[in-house]
Amino acid sequence: MTTEIYRDAWGIPHLRAGSAADLARAQGRVTARDRAWQLEVERHRAQGTSASFLGGSALAWDRFARRARLDDTARRCFAELVRRDPETARWVGAYVDGVNEGLAGSTAPEFARTGLTPGRWEPWTPLGVWLATHILFAGFPAKLWREQVAAHLGADAIGLFAADGPGTSGSNGWLVGGERTVTGQAVIAGDPHRWIEDPGVYQQIHLSCPEFDVVGLAVPGVPGIAHFGHTGTVAWAITNAMSDYQDLYRERLRRTGAGVEALDPDGEWRRAARHTETVEVAGEDPVEVEVIETPRGPVIIGGPEGLDGDPADPSGLPVAISLRYPPRVTGDLGFAALLPLLRARRVADVDRAFDQWAEPVNVVQAADTEGEVLHRVAGRVPLRAGTNSLRVVPAWEPGHEWRGWHATPRAGLTDGVAVMANQRGPAAPLGVEFAPPHRADRITALLAGKERWSAAGMPAIHTDTHLASATPLLDRLAALDDLTPEAAALRDRLLGWDRRMDADSADAALYAAVRAAVVRRLAAHPAFAALTTPPVYPEVFQPWLALVSRVGFALEHLLRAGELFGVDRPAAVRAAIEEVALRPPAGVWGDTHRLAPWRALEPEQPYDEPGLSGDHDCVLCTSGVPGLTDRAARGPAARYVWDLARREDSRWVVPLGASGVPGSPHHRDQLPLWLAGDLVPVVTDWTQMQKECDV
Q: How many helices and strands (H and E) does the chain possess?
């Protein structure tokens, strides 16, 4: 059978082939056509070579990628895949062949601007892309922050700053069982929250061959459809489980004539692997990176000489920090799940496929046309001491080793629905910090408001802007007296506000301004002075260590705590509302709360990015950093509604468009729909598509 490539009215690729391998090759080829620049950026990020064409701004990431050994781990995992699952390894190889074919002669304008020529993908490159995309998903740098808080404020203060903090990614998802829908079949809906990127991190795609016919959201650079898919008889979706499955170890290292040694828990010094790599930096001198790996894992911070400004441990030895993460230990990234997911016909098939999942650790929901449903955690979380999950632990002390893997929890439906929004749900035994319950509670309440739901009703939930987390600050405002007339009027206005963070709301803008002023005043208090200057850790970890953002995301805890290190919170709130009353924002929330997509290379003609509704704790989670910026770099990286009654009634949308090529008619054509909360129909009828070519 000839492999055929079709497009629908939104430029979404629909691929039809005679075998899974031919289809993977076509997927790689069409992805390279649509996302050539994105694919090359991701390949270089996985290899730690992005500074070679992006310059010094990319050096911090490249250092981390080299020291964490991402490329080497991808190679190891692919070698294990060849050994354990040769069919999947060949399928991944077919995808890579297609990518190389599609990249050949690419005319993406970014290549000319940077002087970059597309390079060759290797069979393990998709595994490297997956690993680089998700290595920070579990938020292990939060352990560095907890060390700082414990050192300066005491261990009891750690919980005050617990929140779905900077750098992490979440999602909304909900499953409505057939007993609660108008069709009698289940509906699954939601939206993954990630950095909004241009091109987007998710690719809408349709893959069809004699073995399977699946629509879903693919990760460009990775074959198949891992996170969100619908085969016609079964559909699945995921959210971040907020599990803790990566550990940081404080290492004692010393140099010897033969290299570097690390102190092990048995008191013996043992040889650590060591070599040096060179990072090329466009327009600057090359940078040497020392790569060290102990029996715990790669050293990602410091070395035998420690860090400038980093105190030695009590023994007088400089200290380094290593990272232990499951794929480096097991040689498995979970790619063996990808083909079984495409071939799934029933919930039981999806369940078995996710038994092979590795990382990131996710909460999975699935439903099929026979009425079966699934609500479970999938992925590898090591069994180890509880202190490993909280803090950086000493590598030289026994008791911090991994001792196997947690069984992944399961849950059911309540009143015919299941809601997942990174809250303490089924994954609670596996994590430390979870998202506040506001999004999950709001979705649950909205679903309870109607006895029967349809796929068409789901966008109203996607776009809900009610901000429950405003309550503690509004309660503090309500308790104030003796305000100036201007501040009293502002307080009364906010107390009458409907608590919706709509883009056209002047009240939302006023609330955000007061919140930001409170955050800045709390962060500037002398009680937190020791946290204002983070340790001299690599730049890639700084978002987790910034005091203002930490205060901004933990504001609820800080305002509600019984006592806060002598901070006069009523005075801080009073000063904040007086400040805003003197200089109130002139416009509406969307004037400052604007889309700010991440781009590896800024466009020659900057876009006038739109204002957004929503906020960090709204169901419509468009996230700035309170106290620092209202601009939203995180938000719904896609929205989906999977209808099990009739797949053609399913809907989806991405923030920008199907094409990653600037100037393409499908580069940003979905943006107006995404802003309005509208969705694009899922098309599976080949007669409604335009044939592009045979390959």
A: 22, 24
